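Dear support,

I submitted the protein below through the web form. The confirmation email said the job was done, but the results page showed an empty box. After a refresh the structure appeared. I'm attaching both so you can tell me whether what I see now is the final result or a partial one.
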Amino acid sequence: MAQERGEFGLRSEREVGVNWAAVSSLIFGRVVYAVNWCNLAAVFTFTASELKLNIYGLGLATAAFFVGIGIFQVPGGVLAAKVGPRLTAVCGTFIASLAALLTGFAGNLLEIMVLRFFVGAGMALVFPPGVILMAKFLRGGSEALGVGLYNAAFSGGGVLGLFGWAVLAATVGWRGSLIFGGLLGLFTAVLMLLLVPKDNGRPDFVVKLGHLKHILSDRGLILLAIVMLGFQVGSTVYNSFMIYYLHDTSLLSPGEAGIIAALASIFALLSAPLAGRLYDRYPETRKLLLASGAVMAFGLGLVFFGTVDLAILSGILVGSGYGAGFTFGFSAARQANKLDVEYETLAVSWVNSISLFGNFIPSTLFSYFVLQYGYSSAWLSMAVLSFLLIVPVAFRKKTRQTNSR
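What the results page shows now:
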């Protein structure tokens, strides 16, 4: 069986064969996962009006979510190694969906923050196992394409969550829209339980301290996590605050603002699978990450000028950049595992943990800058921050070496 050693580790060529039922359930689950990730931002203009909140409340709720999703990444990776990625992903989907449903009954900001923490905690158990399962079910040199499709599904769900839920909230109320999203999530948990084949968990598996230290201290993984944090900053700030920003400054309705905000998810949907194909063929991972990061940061900076037209162009560039960047980065993280296959999920979890947990800082920082210095300064500062976090990848000298098959 042919093998390739990449910039971040070793990968092997797997047997050809696609389990379309499993892949379809994972993709559908990822779409609904993204809906429940994004829909609070879509309905927050209604929530803020009823609960007497401002943009800082959205920032705190967003930060609570990222604290939850960041803290539980590594425990989720360990759990996946013991019980298997399928059961871990199903349990995480159930926890996140139940918390998303209960958010529809929240009566104040504190309750929203607590529930968003648990939405994040549940989602922490879903993404790394999902990456491994998609790579498993799309084989024969298409592993990165599987990651790209998984990220594209998130972007498709982002479109629904940002635009669809803004319209839905105007029709049934913000509470009803969040409850509906939670119910959809519970349905996807059942669907994955039925359609994704059982995997071989290892109840006897114990994470060896030396192996754990090897992963957590891997400089390549830490660098990759910092780069992914840069992409997280750009995508989170745009997706979380654009609807509120356009409603607040340009007086657009939540539905109109949702259409513009959803552009980032639409173009991420288009760029992610293309990026997966490119990654499978092009050896220069660092150049791919740097180029996609520059596109995203430039797009985010355009919002500085404060026009609706440039907000539209920003969405196109930001989405294209982070859709490609996430695919390149998490494909590299999956390949970074040099130990047993059980550590594959843990490697992805560690990268995701740093990038997501660190994201609570820009979530609160953006809203603070808005209140202190105005929107233009807040957008520009986040654009600069995101690019500065991505730039270090340019100084990594090693590149993936591809072999002919």
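Response: this is the final, complete result; the empty box was a page-load delay. Confidence is low (pLDDT under 50) at residues 1-16, 401-405.
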